[in-house]
UniProtKB/TrEMBL annotation:
This is Uncharacterized protein. It comes from Ditylum brightwellii. InterPro entries: Hybrid_Histidine_Kinase (IPR053159).
Amino acid sequence: IWNNVSEKDENKIIFLAVDQMNYGMTSIESDDQKSFLAKLNLRAGEKAMSLSTMSSCASYFSTGIKLLGRDHWENDYELSLHLHNYYAEAEYCNGNFSQAREVIKAVFDKSIAFYDRLRAYFVLIKMLGAENKLREALEMGITVLTCLGKSLPFGLCDVSTASKDFNKIRATFESMTDDEFFGIRAMENSDALITMSF
């Protein structure tokens, strides 16, 4: 199926093709073919996640991980990292917190750089919040922000200062036309975007 479809139509048949290949994955012996199928499982999982079909995407990511070779963190780092990060997020969304924690631990243990752990930290913080472990979630968020070189002011916020800042921003937006407002460029600073997600 996969070999007979045009590149522009691949997304239309991704689930059918990957499901059929996964049924026969035990007969695949070549590491290159396993890696290729793991990449297709990543694509299918991402598409399933975009459609909010979390149990399906978790299955694709899990299958992709199973297809990876023994030394996959060394030999196929980016693919391993993406499959594990997405799988942790899918399991969190499915409420399988123990499985998500296990996958997050693998990311923390095997990832090379701090930035490679950010998605896992984000999932873990959301999971702690869902478990009503708010102090732990807050402390972890502050730790991550500190590692990103950002700091938060501690202590109580001065209400009058916050109110003045809010009113100033509101006045700026109220003075803009619709065209001016919708013409504001989207933020492109990746560090700032990452920081704001925490």
